[in-house]
Amino acid sequence: MAGEMNVPGSWDPKKLYNISPEEKALIESRAATRAALKAEFQMKVTNPHQSGPGFVFDPALQRYLSMRSRHYSHFKKTPKNFGLFIGCVIAPIIALTFGTQWDRDRFDRKCRQGEVAYADRDWKFI
């Protein structure tokens, strides 16, 4: 967008802001649109004859909030989603369960065989 500088090593700070007339017109039209929307919002917010307290209705914001609230109804089940669910939820639970059970069984076996002294037990001070 900022000039024709696609070749590596051709950076010239004097040509950094050389933009085409089309790009300049686009930038100015976006600025004019922003200014018009800002003026309209200010006019609505500061209207002394408004019907009552409340918020200014913004259709773009309403579309965004509606999209966020309807996200799960548009969810599509795919193998990738299922794999992510298994990898992020189910697999850690199973791994922690088996790891904890293995450690407890190993400790129980050592206690029953007399390999762990009573003074060396875990959780002695709790």
From TrEMBL:
Membrane topology: Single-pass membrane protein
Transmembrane stretches, start-end: 82-102
Family membership noted in the UniProt record: Belongs to the complex I NDUFB4 subunit family.
InterPro entries, sorted: NADH_UbQ_OxRdtase_NDUFB4_su
Protein name: NADH dehydrogenase [ubiquinone] 1 beta subcomplex subunit 4
A Pfam family it matches: NDUF_B4
Annotated Gene Ontology cellular component terms: mitochondrial inner membrane
Keywords: Electron transport, Membrane, Mitochondrion, Mitochondrion inner membrane, Respiratory chain, Transmembrane, Transmembrane helix, Transport
Organism: Capitella teleta (Polychaete worm)
Main location: mitochondrion
Location relative to the cell: Mitochondrion inner membrane
